[in-house]
Amino acid sequence: MRYQPNPHFMRLFELFTSAPDSIGANLQRELGEAHSDTPLLVATGTDLVLFPGGGHPPTSVDFRKGTRGFFEITAVSHLGLAIPYLARLRQLDHPSCKKDARELIAQCRVVQDFNSVSYWRDEVAAAAWRGREEKIADLVDYTCATTADFLERAIENPKLLDFGYLRANLLEGDGPEAVPVSFNDMMAATFALSALDSVYRSLKWLHEQSIDWARLMVLVVGSAGRPSAGLTWQSNNVCSLLYEASGRKLDPARLIIAPGGPTIELEKLADSAAAARIEALYRKFWYSSLSSVEMSRLMWPDYPGFEKRIETAPVVEDDTETVDAMPVVRSVDDKRAIVTRLRYVMEDPGAQIATAGMQFVLDQLSANGNRPELVELPGFTYTTYPTSNRK
Known about the structure:
Blueprint: H1 7-16, H2 23-34, E1 40-43, E2 47-51, E3 59-62, H3 70-77, H4 79-91, H5 97-114, H6 117-124, H7 133-156, H8 163-171, H9 183-208, E4 217-221, H10 237-245, E5 255-258, H11 272-299, H12 335-347, H13 358-367
Parallel strand pairs: 1-4, 4-5
Antiparallel strand pairs: 1-2, 2-3
Helix pairs in contact: 2-11, 3-9, 4-5, 5-7, 6-7, 9-12, 9-13, 10-13
């Protein structure tokens, strides 16, 4: 017979914790009502939503997929992975390898024909990219042309897809038959460009809100890329974004990462009654996670307490062989750290892919008053891409 707890013990258990009217649930509700004026910020994988409290309506900003040019620049960035992935498929004798390569070649040529300075300047019109449109067009043309040419030659000469050749002549760009600009530089540039507009708009929106950062409650909910990614302060790019936006006033202990938390349907926030219900749901969720904090401090004040610390990022030196966290980028030409970040986000299932290009951009925007024109971008600012002549 399957084991079942005795109902008398179960009722004793429920009285404290699991019943809707339990002691714990009552305390959580009381704490929520007592702090109903405390600002609450909910971050999803794509949006930031601020509930100011006191019955004021929420406001929001889309910081990821709403980024103008996000899909375009990311599609180009992926070409740096597409060729090595095709090389691996060839090693595995995958039957669609040549077909996939030809489709990619054809689409690169289509994008080349469509790509223009005017498209990036007038249609994408990303505020943080203003003044960089001509160079972006050059980068896109170069990457698509190089990808198509490399794959056309590789179909005829499969030795080009050997990883030793790929690393030296395409990724690193230091081999005897190297391309003009390494794809490591290209990927660093596209990651940084994507981060630049996303971080700029997010900081701008956060600075426009009247947030009491010391009191702010933060919930980071939903998935952020891979299901296993962004589960810690160090690996979730929203944490560092909010911390810098607050002038480092945000209390890390008041930020909860809850991938299983309820997600927001933004269109429902336009209805005041629905918005109030959603806000109440999130406030309850926040206090259900942290109500025990207050009680532990009341019960055991003379014992060591918990403090959430922001760990210092590791530095990559010439002799560094491994890292256990996302390394810091010290300058725009710190190529070893920049490429290590690219490897790190692919190798650690807990890392968010987008964090590869974010930290260096965030540090600069925070230091210069959120002025994107002053930001130096790795693989871009001091890198010359062949001119596309596409206006």
